[in-house]
Amino acid sequence: MKQYNMHAAKTNLSCLVKEAAAGEAFAIAINGKPMVKVVPFYDVEPLPRIGFMKGEISVPENFDRMYEKEISNMFGGDTE
User: Fold this and answer.
1) pLDDT 10s digits, 23-52
2) 3, 55, 62, 72: least CB-packed within 10 angstroms?
3) Which residues pair with 4 in a beta bridge?
């Protein structure tokens, strides 16, 4: 495991965080003594969110025109 002193870790923090997120854990040391271990927050990739409810819900055919009259009336207009 790679080890960085505090100054090097502060200077290169954004690059080190990207490496840790990609699975490359490292330690931060003070005076050569490892103090903390930085590891990815998730051990496994989270499940994709898009499409997670596929087949569970349905959208009405008139979805883009629902409540059209009510909305138009709120803004002082009439729809034909």
Assistant:
1) 899 999 999 999 999 998 876 666 678 887
2) 55
3) 28
In angstroms, the CA 36 to CA 34 distance is: 6
Give the Cβ contact number of residue 55 at 10 Å. 6
Full-prediction pTM beyond 0.85? no
Tell me how many domains the chain contains. 1
Residue 74 counted as domain residue: no
68 in a domain, yes or no?
A: no
Residue 54 lies in a domain: no
Sheet arrangement for strand 2-5: 2-5, 26-30, 33-38
Residue 14 lies in a domain: yes
